[in-house]
Amino acid sequence: MPLHPHVVKRFDELKAIRTHLHTCPEIGTETAGTVAFITSKLDEYGLSYEAIGENSVLAKVDGKAPGKTVAFRGDMDGLVTQEETGLPYASQTDGRMHACGHDGHTTTMLALAQYLSTYRDFDGTILLLFQSGEEGYGGAKKVIEDGLFEKYSIDLMFGYHNWPGEDPDKIIVHQGPCMASEDRFDIKVTGRSGHASMPHGCIEPFAAVADMIKAAQTIIPRKVSAHDKAVISITQVHGGSAYNIIPDDVMIRGNVRTVDGGVQDCIESSLATVVDGVAKTYGVEAEFTYYRKHPVLMNSTPELAIAAAERVVGKENVLTNVLPAMGSEDYAFFMEHTKGCFVWVGNGENSPLLHNSKYDFNDEAMLTAASLFIELIHDVM
Ligand SMILES: [Zn+2]
Ligand SMILES: [Zn+2]
């Protein structure tokens, strides 16, 4: 079936919901206002729900007979940035904006909720997760820590992100990694301070810092296979306070992205080796801390999404050879606990990029995504 007629029929109502959410973005896990709006809609649809994580909501819809449990996730937080779209429904709060389209993802979930309240033509249980704090606030982790997978034996989970650069009739399904891991690191280099005119009496940290940064850049070409994708970026160097003082400490910070857990391990251990080796050479102390922020988002059931997508938008509009993004997505944590898939739906060929101050969610992407999810329900339940 192409776009599902039930969601197409409700397009004006969905647009009204989406543009309303666009006016009132909330940040991180402080999504109480959005949650109040969502639960008022779930009440209207007669669906039961529970609070989970930190200001996230889980709606539950039982079908006509017992069966699989399938979850869908939409994120709902905005970003700390000033909107410059000039739209009539632009954010009413200065410095906050739905610049990643989570207003659209939330509305898609409400479209699905309304559909399921009307048609319980499936077996099993459907969970709809409205998740806070995707934009770096640990929202998914909090939902998992609150027992999502202990309470429910979830067989499959699906989610999507809108994707600028393709039109909304395009669905992109990655057969394997979809989005990169994100790791962060700190290297605190400690020498011994003193007068700039007498470095021989100090342990000058900057030469070691310069070599550590240079050596870190050799890890990808030398340790990671040319066939693998990875990025190491040094993003901060802090140290020193005067022209004539050699400081005690310098802090280096950086960011690592990969689409392979093995490469991630290799980069972590190679950075540790570089830091240790350079520190010994220069006689400085170096404290290396590596934080794993997001795992690789790995699709384990792309074939399900591809089959359903082909029916919704046609085989020629399902793109399966698109490279994974080096950005990360906290949906990746869910894929460590169950099988499933995260797809991209086009947001328009000329759409401004995600997180751009002129970005806006393309409402037509909701029709594609909701239709895809309905097809998936019919396929797997
Ligand atoms: Zn984002
Ligand atoms: Zn996003």
TrEMBL record:
GO biological process, one term: diaminopimelate biosynthetic process
Gene3D superfamilies: 3.30.70.360, Zn peptidases
Pfam families, sorted: M20_dimer, Peptidase_M20
Domain of life according to the entry: Bacteria
Peptidase M20 dimerisation domain mapped to chain residues: 185-280
InterPro entries assigned: Amidohydrolase (IPR017439), Bact_exopeptidase_dim_dom (IPR036264), Peptidase_M20 (IPR002933), Peptidase_M20_dimer (IPR011650)
Manner of cofactor binding, per the entry note: The Mn(2+) ion enhances activity.
Molecular function as annotated in GO: metal ion binding; N-acetyldiaminopimelate deacetylase activity
SUPFAM superfamilies: Bacterial exopeptidase dimerisation domain, Zn-dependent exopeptidases
Cofactor(s) essential for the protein: Mn(2+)
Name of the protein described by the UniProt record: Hippurate hydrolase
Species annotation: Desulfobaculum bizertense DSM 18034
